[in-house]
Protein backbone atom coordinates (compact mmCIF):
# COMPACT_ATOMS: atom_id res chain seq x y z
CA UNK A 1 0.00 0.00 0.00
CA UNK A 2 1.09 3.50 -0.81
CA UNK A 3 2.41 5.70 2.05
CA UNK A 4 -0.41 8.26 2.13
CA UNK A 5 0.60 9.50 5.60
CA UNK A 6 3.98 10.51 4.23
CA UNK A 7 2.51 12.16 1.11
CA UNK A 8 0.14 14.27 3.22
CA UNK A 9 2.87 15.34 5.60
CA UNK A 10 5.12 16.29 2.68
CA UNK A 11 2.54 18.63 1.06
CA UNK A 12 3.78 22.18 0.69
CA UNK A 13 0.65 23.80 -0.73
CA UNK A 14 -3.11 23.50 -0.72
CA UNK A 15 -2.96 22.39 -4.37
CA UNK A 16 -0.61 19.49 -3.52
CA UNK A 17 -2.79 18.51 -0.61
CA UNK A 18 -5.88 18.50 -2.81
CA UNK A 19 -4.11 16.20 -5.26
CA UNK A 20 -3.35 13.69 -2.49
CA UNK A 21 -6.91 13.99 -1.15
CA UNK A 22 -8.28 13.05 -4.58
CA UNK A 23 -5.83 10.13 -4.79
CA UNK A 24 -7.37 8.77 -1.57
CA UNK A 25 -10.97 9.95 -1.44
CA UNK A 26 -11.73 10.84 -5.09
CA UNK A 27 -14.12 8.81 -7.30
CA UNK A 28 -11.22 6.62 -8.45
CA UNK A 29 -9.26 7.16 -5.27
CA UNK A 30 -7.59 4.42 -3.27
CA UNK A 31 -10.18 4.23 -0.49
CA UNK A 32 -13.18 4.53 -2.78
CA UNK A 33 -11.85 1.63 -4.84
CA UNK A 34 -10.93 -0.42 -1.78
CA UNK A 35 -14.41 0.03 -0.28
CA UNK A 36 -15.96 -1.05 -3.59
CA UNK A 37 -13.78 -4.16 -3.63
CA UNK A 38 -15.20 -5.24 -0.23
CA UNK A 39 -18.15 -6.69 -2.18
CA UNK A 40 -15.96 -9.48 -3.48
CA UNK A 41 -15.02 -10.59 0.06
CA UNK A 42 -17.02 -12.73 2.47
CA UNK A 43 -17.49 -13.31 6.14
CA UNK A 44 -14.73 -12.51 8.64
CA UNK A 45 -12.33 -11.45 5.92
CA UNK A 46 -14.80 -8.83 4.76
CA UNK A 47 -15.36 -7.58 8.32
CA UNK A 48 -11.64 -7.44 9.03
CA UNK A 49 -10.90 -5.55 5.81
CA UNK A 50 -13.82 -3.12 6.39
CA UNK A 51 -12.56 -2.30 9.89
CA UNK A 52 -9.08 -1.69 8.52
CA UNK A 53 -10.38 0.60 5.80
CA UNK A 54 -12.60 2.54 8.22
CA UNK A 55 -9.65 3.11 10.53
CA UNK A 56 -7.46 4.17 7.65
CA UNK A 57 -10.18 6.55 6.37
CA UNK A 58 -10.43 8.19 9.82
CA UNK A 59 -6.67 8.56 10.21
CA UNK A 60 -6.17 9.99 6.74
CA UNK A 61 -9.04 12.48 6.89
CA UNK A 62 -7.80 13.66 10.26
CA UNK A 63 -4.30 14.07 8.84
CA UNK A 64 -5.64 16.00 5.86
CA UNK A 65 -7.66 18.35 8.09
CA UNK A 66 -4.63 18.95 10.25
CA UNK A 67 -2.40 19.65 7.25
CA UNK A 68 -5.04 21.89 5.76
CA UNK A 69 -5.16 24.19 8.77
CA UNK A 70 -1.35 24.23 8.92
CA UNK A 71 -1.16 25.32 5.28
CA UNK A 72 -3.91 27.94 5.75
CA UNK A 73 -2.05 29.41 8.69
CA UNK A 74 1.15 29.49 6.62
CA UNK A 75 -0.65 31.26 3.78
CA UNK A 76 -1.95 33.91 6.20
CA UNK A 77 1.55 34.36 7.60
CA UNK A 78 2.97 34.88 4.11
CA UNK A 79 0.23 37.40 3.18
CA UNK A 80 0.73 39.29 6.43
CA UNK A 81 4.44 39.43 5.95
CA UNK A 82 3.98 40.68 2.37
CA UNK A 83 1.58 43.48 3.34
CA UNK A 84 3.38 44.52 6.52
CA UNK A 85 4.30 48.18 6.81
CA UNK A 86 7.80 48.92 7.95
CA UNK A 87 7.43 52.10 9.96
CA UNK A 88 11.17 52.43 10.24
CA UNK A 89 11.30 52.92 6.47
CA UNK A 90 10.66 56.69 6.63
CA UNK A 91 13.85 58.45 5.92
CA UNK A 92 15.28 61.18 8.06
CA UNK A 93 15.06 63.63 5.19
CA UNK A 94 11.55 62.74 3.99
CA UNK A 95 9.60 65.86 3.06
CA UNK A 96 6.99 67.18 5.44
CA UNK A 97 3.89 68.80 3.95
CA UNK A 98 2.85 72.34 4.75
CA UNK A 99 -0.17 74.59 4.63
CA UNK A 100 -0.79 76.26 1.28
CA UNK A 101 0.13 79.97 1.56
CA UNK A 102 -3.50 80.99 0.98
CA UNK A 103 -4.68 78.77 3.83
CA UNK A 104 -1.85 79.97 6.08
CA UNK A 105 -2.87 83.59 5.50
CA UNK A 106 -6.53 82.67 6.04
CA UNK A 107 -5.58 81.09 9.38
CA UNK A 108 -3.68 84.20 10.39
CA UNK A 109 -6.73 86.35 9.60
CA UNK A 110 -9.07 84.00 11.48
CA UNK A 111 -6.76 83.91 14.51
CA UNK A 112 -6.75 87.69 14.71
CA UNK A 113 -10.53 87.99 14.67
CA UNK A 114 -10.97 85.13 17.14
CA UNK A 115 -8.65 87.09 19.47
CA UNK A 116 -11.04 90.05 19.05
CA UNK A 117 -14.02 87.96 20.14
CA UNK A 118 -15.49 87.31 16.70
CA UNK A 119 -17.35 84.01 16.26
CA UNK A 120 -16.70 81.77 13.27
CA UNK A 121 -19.68 81.15 10.97
CA UNK A 122 -20.03 79.17 7.74
CA UNK A 123 -22.58 78.80 4.96
CA UNK A 124 -23.21 76.62 1.89
CA UNK A 125 -21.23 77.05 -1.34
CA UNK A 126 -24.45 76.61 -3.32
CA UNK A 127 -26.65 79.54 -2.41
CA UNK A 128 -30.08 80.72 -3.44
CA UNK A 129 -31.01 84.04 -4.96
CA UNK A 130 -32.37 85.35 -1.66
CA UNK A 131 -29.22 84.86 0.44
CA UNK A 132 -26.64 85.66 -2.25
CA UNK A 133 -28.41 88.71 -3.72
CA UNK A 134 -31.92 89.76 -2.70
CA UNK A 135 -31.48 90.04 1.07
CA UNK A 136 -28.18 91.88 0.50
CA UNK A 137 -30.03 94.66 -1.28
CA UNK A 138 -28.76 93.48 -4.66
CA UNK A 139 -31.83 93.98 -6.85
CA UNK A 140 -32.26 91.89 -9.98
CA UNK A 141 -30.98 94.66 -12.24
CA UNK A 142 -27.68 94.98 -10.35
CA UNK A 143 -24.62 94.30 -12.56
CA UNK A 144 -23.15 91.87 -10.02
CA UNK A 145 -25.91 89.50 -11.06
CA UNK A 146 -24.75 89.54 -14.63
CA UNK A 147 -24.32 86.17 -16.30
CA UNK A 148 -20.70 87.24 -16.80
CA UNK A 149 -19.95 87.11 -13.09
CA UNK A 150 -22.19 84.47 -11.59
CA UNK A 151 -22.28 80.71 -12.05
CA UNK A 152 -26.00 80.02 -12.27
CA UNK A 153 -27.39 76.59 -11.41
CA UNK A 154 -30.95 75.25 -11.71
CA UNK A 155 -33.90 76.65 -9.72
CA UNK A 156 -32.49 80.15 -9.06
CA UNK A 157 -29.51 78.70 -7.32
CA UNK A 158 -25.94 79.92 -7.75
CA UNK A 159 -22.40 79.15 -6.65
CA UNK A 160 -22.03 81.88 -4.06
CA UNK A 161 -20.22 84.89 -5.50
CA UNK A 162 -19.14 86.18 -2.10
CA UNK A 163 -19.23 85.27 1.60
CA UNK A 164 -21.79 88.00 2.34
CA UNK A 165 -24.75 85.53 2.30
CA UNK A 166 -23.34 84.14 5.56
CA UNK A 167 -24.23 87.52 7.11
CA UNK A 168 -27.85 86.87 6.16
CA UNK A 169 -27.85 83.25 7.38
CA UNK A 170 -26.31 84.27 10.70
CA UNK A 171 -28.78 87.13 11.27
CA UNK A 172 -31.73 84.87 10.38
CA UNK A 173 -30.65 82.15 12.81
CA UNK A 174 -29.42 84.30 15.72
CA UNK A 175 -30.46 87.35 17.65
CA UNK A 176 -28.32 90.48 17.97
CA UNK A 177 -25.74 91.25 19.22
CA UNK A 178 -23.71 89.54 16.50
CA UNK A 179 -19.96 89.56 16.07
CA UNK A 180 -18.89 87.11 13.42
CA UNK A 181 -16.50 86.33 10.60
CA UNK A 182 -17.16 83.91 7.75
CA UNK A 183 -14.13 82.59 5.87
CA UNK A 184 -14.72 80.54 2.76
CA UNK A 185 -14.61 79.73 -0.93
CA UNK A 186 -16.43 81.85 -3.51
CA UNK A 187 -16.90 81.55 -7.27
CA UNK A 188 -17.05 83.92 -10.22
CA UNK A 189 -16.93 83.55 -13.97
CA UNK A 190 -13.61 85.29 -14.32
CA UNK A 191 -10.16 84.14 -15.35
CA UNK A 192 -7.14 86.32 -16.07
CA UNK A 193 -3.96 87.61 -14.42
CA UNK A 194 -5.79 88.90 -11.38
CA UNK A 195 -8.95 86.74 -11.32
CA UNK A 196 -9.58 83.03 -10.81
CA UNK A 197 -13.01 81.35 -10.99
CA UNK A 198 -12.59 80.13 -7.41
CA UNK A 199 -11.05 82.14 -4.62
CA UNK A 200 -11.39 82.84 -0.91
CA UNK A 201 -12.90 85.62 1.15
CA UNK A 202 -13.30 86.49 4.79
CA UNK A 203 -16.50 88.30 5.67
CA UNK A 204 -17.11 90.21 8.88
CA UNK A 205 -20.27 91.47 10.54
CA UNK A 206 -20.97 93.27 13.81
CA UNK A 207 -24.54 94.07 14.87
CA UNK A 208 -25.58 95.75 18.10
CA UNK A 209 -28.38 97.95 19.44
CA UNK A 210 -29.52 101.12 17.68
CA UNK A 211 -26.72 103.72 17.38
CA UNK A 212 -24.30 101.51 19.30
CA UNK A 213 -21.85 100.94 16.45
CA UNK A 214 -20.70 103.44 13.87
CA UNK A 215 -18.25 103.91 11.04
CA UNK A 216 -15.56 104.99 13.51
CA UNK A 217 -15.78 101.62 15.31
CA UNK A 218 -15.32 99.95 11.94
CA UNK A 219 -12.30 102.12 11.12
CA UNK A 220 -10.67 101.47 14.46
CA UNK A 221 -11.21 97.73 14.26
CA UNK A 222 -9.91 97.44 10.67
CA UNK A 223 -6.87 99.59 11.38
CA UNK A 224 -5.87 97.22 14.17
CA UNK A 225 -6.42 94.26 11.89
CA UNK A 226 -4.46 95.65 8.92
CA UNK A 227 -1.51 96.64 11.13
CA UNK A 228 -1.52 93.13 12.60
CA UNK A 229 -1.35 91.67 9.08
CA UNK A 230 0.98 94.10 7.29
CA UNK A 231 3.03 95.67 10.08
CA UNK A 232 3.85 99.36 10.24
CA UNK A 233 1.59 100.77 7.51
CA UNK A 234 -0.87 103.65 7.19
CA UNK A 235 -4.54 102.98 6.45
CA UNK A 236 -6.99 105.17 4.57
CA UNK A 237 -10.68 104.78 3.80
CA UNK A 238 -11.96 105.78 0.37
CA UNK A 239 -15.68 106.31 -0.30
CA UNK A 240 -17.08 103.48 -2.42
CA UNK A 241 -20.31 101.66 -3.13
CA UNK A 242 -21.70 98.29 -2.05
CA UNK A 243 -25.44 97.61 -2.13
CA UNK A 244 -25.40 96.07 1.36
CA UNK A 245 -23.62 98.95 3.13
CA UNK A 246 -24.29 102.67 3.39
CA UNK A 247 -21.99 104.49 3.61
CA UNK A 248 -19.48 102.15 1.96
CA UNK A 249 -15.72 102.41 1.76
CA UNK A 250 -12.67 100.66 0.45
CA UNK A 251 -9.68 100.44 2.77
CA UNK A 252 -6.21 101.06 1.34
CA UNK A 253 -2.87 100.48 3.02
CA UNK A 254 0.27 102.45 2.24
CA UNK A 255 2.24 100.45 -0.31
CA UNK A 256 4.31 97.78 1.46
CA UNK A 257 6.74 97.67 -1.46
CA UNK A 258 7.73 101.34 -1.73
CA UNK A 259 6.51 102.66 1.61
CA UNK A 260 4.14 105.02 -0.19
CA UNK A 261 6.60 106.70 -2.56
CA UNK A 262 5.02 105.11 -5.62
CA UNK A 263 6.10 102.02 -7.54
CA UNK A 264 4.90 99.61 -10.19
CA UNK A 265 2.84 97.48 -7.75
CA UNK A 266 0.85 100.42 -6.36
CA UNK A 267 0.66 101.93 -9.85
CA UNK A 268 2.54 104.98 -8.52
CA UNK A 269 -0.29 105.93 -6.14
CA UNK A 270 1.49 104.88 -2.95
CA UNK A 271 -1.63 102.94 -1.89
CA UNK A 272 -2.86 99.34 -2.16
CA UNK A 273 -6.55 98.52 -1.99
CA UNK A 274 -7.15 95.65 0.42
CA UNK A 275 -10.83 95.37 1.41
CA UNK A 276 -14.42 96.60 1.18
CA UNK A 277 -16.50 97.68 4.15
CA UNK A 278 -19.28 99.89 5.40
CA UNK A 279 -22.19 100.49 7.72
CA UNK A 280 -24.91 97.87 7.22
CA UNK A 281 -27.64 99.17 4.91
CA UNK A 282 -31.10 99.44 6.57
CA UNK A 283 -32.54 97.37 3.69
CA UNK A 284 -30.40 94.42 4.80
CA UNK A 285 -31.74 94.63 8.36
CA UNK A 286 -35.25 94.87 6.93
CA UNK A 287 -34.72 91.69 4.87
CA UNK A 288 -33.84 89.71 8.00
CA UNK A 289 -36.47 91.35 10.22
CA UNK A 290 -34.05 93.20 12.52
CA UNK A 291 -35.30 96.41 14.19
CA UNK A 292 -33.51 99.05 16.28
CA UNK A 293 -30.01 97.81 15.48
CA UNK A 294 -26.83 99.23 14.01
CA UNK A 295 -23.91 97.41 12.45
CA UNK A 296 -20.90 97.34 10.23
CA UNK A 297 -19.52 94.80 7.79
CA UNK A 298 -16.42 94.09 5.75
CA UNK A 299 -15.17 91.63 3.19
CA UNK A 300 -11.72 90.81 1.87
CA UNK A 301 -10.03 88.53 -0.65
CA UNK A 302 -7.57 86.15 0.96
CA UNK A 303 -5.53 85.59 -2.23
CA UNK A 304 -4.97 89.35 -2.48
CA UNK A 305 -3.60 89.37 1.07
CA UNK A 306 -1.39 86.34 0.33
CA UNK A 307 -0.04 87.93 -2.87
CA UNK A 308 0.87 91.13 -1.07
CA UNK A 309 2.30 89.44 2.02
CA UNK A 310 4.39 86.98 0.04
CA UNK A 311 5.05 89.15 -2.99
CA UNK A 312 3.53 86.67 -5.45
CA UNK A 313 3.18 88.53 -8.76
CA UNK A 314 0.69 86.25 -10.55
CA UNK A 315 -2.52 85.16 -8.82
CA UNK A 316 -2.74 82.04 -10.94
CA UNK A 317 0.49 80.65 -9.49
CA UNK A 318 -1.37 80.23 -6.18
CA UNK A 319 -3.58 77.61 -7.85
CA UNK A 320 -1.09 75.67 -9.96
CA UNK A 321 0.38 73.52 -7.18
CA UNK A 322 3.91 74.06 -8.50
CA UNK A 323 6.27 72.66 -5.88
CA UNK A 324 8.95 75.21 -6.71
CA UNK A 325 6.57 77.87 -5.37
CA UNK A 326 4.99 75.84 -2.56
CA UNK A 327 8.33 74.67 -1.15
CA UNK A 328 9.18 78.25 -0.32
CA UNK A 329 6.37 78.28 2.23
CA UNK A 330 7.38 75.25 4.27
N1 LIG B 1 -19.10 91.09 -0.88
C1 LIG B 1 -18.13 92.05 -1.41
C2 LIG B 1 -17.44 91.43 -2.61
O1 LIG B 1 -17.47 90.25 -2.78
C3 LIG B 1 -17.11 92.40 -0.37
C4 LIG B 1 -17.68 93.21 0.71
C5 LIG B 1 -17.64 94.58 0.64
C6 LIG B 1 -18.25 92.61 1.82
C7 LIG B 1 -18.18 95.38 1.63
C8 LIG B 1 -18.78 93.40 2.83
C9 LIG B 1 -18.74 94.78 2.73
O2 LIG B 1 -19.34 92.85 3.92
O3 LIG B 1 -19.26 95.55 3.71
O4 LIG B 1 -16.84 92.14 -3.37
Mean pLDDT across all residues, rounded? 93
Shape: elongated
- The CATH architecture category of the largest domain equals 2-Layer Sandwich
What radius of gyration results from the CA coordinates? 38 Å
Task: For the largest sheet, list the strands in their spatial order.
Answer: 1-4-5-9-8-7-6
- Total domain units: 2
Alpha-carbon distance between the two ends? 76 Å
Summarize the structure.
With 330 residues, the protein is an alpha+beta fold. The protein folds into two domains: 2-83; 101-329, Bira Bifunctional Protein, Domain 2 (BirA Bifunctional Protein, domain 2). The protein is 40% helix and 20% strand.
Key structural traits:
alpha+beta, binds 3,4-dihydroxyphenylalanine, BirA Bifunctional Protein, domain 2, two-stranded antiparallel ribbon, 330 residues
Q: Can you describe what's shown?
A:
- This protein is an alpha+beta fold.
- It has two domains: 2-83; 101-329, Bira Bifunctional Protein, Domain 2 (BirA Bifunctional Protein, domain 2), CATH 3.30.930.
- It is built from eleven helices and nine strands.
- Strands 1-4-5-9-8-7-6 form a seven-stranded mixed sheet, with helices on both faces. Strands 2-3 form a two-stranded antiparallel sheet.
- Helix 1 packs parallel to helix 4 (43-83), helix 2 (14-25) packs antiparallel against helix 4 (43-83) and helix 5 packs across helix 10 (302-310).
- It is elongated, with a radius of gyration of 38 Å.
- The mean pLDDT is 93.
- 3,4-dihydroxyphenylalanine (DAH) binds next to strand 8 and strand 9.
